[in-house]
Amino acid sequence: MQKPYVFITRKLPNETVTQLEQIAQINMWPHEEKAVPREVLLTEIKKADGLLTMLSDKIDSEVLNEASSLKVIANLAVGYDNIDVAAAKQKGITVCNTPDVLTDSTADLAFSLILATARRIVESANYVKEGKWNSWGPLLLAGTDVHHKTIGIVGMGRIGEAVARRAKGFDMKILYHNRNRKPDREVSLEAEYKEFHELLKQSDFVVSLAPLTPETKGMFNREAFQSMKNSAIFINAGRGATVDESALIEALHNKTIAGAGLDVFQQEPIDVNHPLLSMRQVVALPHIGSASVETRMKMAELACRNIQSILDGKGAETPVT
């Protein structure tokens, strides 16, 4: 009996796919940092029983309409807004993600952005490397404290809760906004629920971890930034499209807010000439929220297990449909 066919859209470590290879014929796009071309994806999906995708792969109705035997799409991410889930469901295709395993790594990164932006870490490191450090000065590259400040977390899911736990270690006051209140977390994390604009007004650090939905798309607009303190720092480790980047650029340029730490952008990869990259008060990272070796290995293994379970006729571990 012929093995089912699985296409993987980015090169993964061989050890993460070993188990899947026992039950499936695997074809893996051979590049780690180069996305699979759309024409290749359209060809591969015609014969695929399973598809392991990245957040950067657009799996829309055009792609799904080419699928004749596809049973499962495993996305190597918590988010899955790159996939037309409704169209997949209509075709009886299970969509899976990789929650939980990346929670702490992403929270580490989000808090690193807070520290890096507040304390001007990247700017200071470059100052030394560029040979500009000639003497000590009382306010040379002085940033702002993080401890005892107020953090406002927008999107209090697993990652938001993990960021709040880290904030407690810095003796921060914790505010949060979420589509649903979490009374148990208000007790365990000593977090206060606030309406969106009230959170913006009170926070020294505004951290966006919200998923991308019709309600959250562009929620950080001109009005939102004008609601913040002019000393506030904005952090986005959630989804790039929750931010109106032209409004963010304006807010930074006009000193409506003090700085930004960004791991995600509206268009990725971001153009090297993008105005945000020329601003010294911006720390920009290449969407590496979950990028620790340990976590990425676990994510790949979970994605492969999800595909294997569906192809074996069992339920997926982490389905979203």
Topology pattern, helix = H, strand = E: EHEHEHEHEHHEHEHEHEHEHEEH
Per the CATH scheme, the topology name of the largest domain is Rossmann fold
User: What's the rounded overall pLDDT mean?
Assistant: 97
The strand order across the widest sheet is 8-7-6-9-10-11-12
| Residue windows where pLDDT falls under 50 for at least 5 positions | none
Based on secondary structure, the structural category is alpha/beta
**Alpha-carbon distance between the termini?**
29 Å
The CATH superfamily of the largest domain turns out to be NAD(P)-binding Rossmann-like Domain
Question: Which shape, going by the Cα principal axes?
Answer: globular
Main β sheet profile:
7 strands, parallel
The fraction of residues assigned to DSSP E strands is 5-15%
CATH class of the largest domain equals Alpha Beta
Total helices: the number is: 12
Provide the gyration radius in Å.
21 Å
What is the number of strand segments?
12
* CATH architecture name of the largest domain: 3-Layer(aba) Sandwich
Count of domain modules: 2
Helix content: 25-40%
Domain D-isomer specific 2-hydroxyacid dehydrogenase NAD-binding: 111-289
GO molecular function: glyoxylate reductase (NADH) activity
EC number: 1.1.1.26
Family: Belongs to the D-isomer specific 2-hydroxyacid dehydrogenase family.
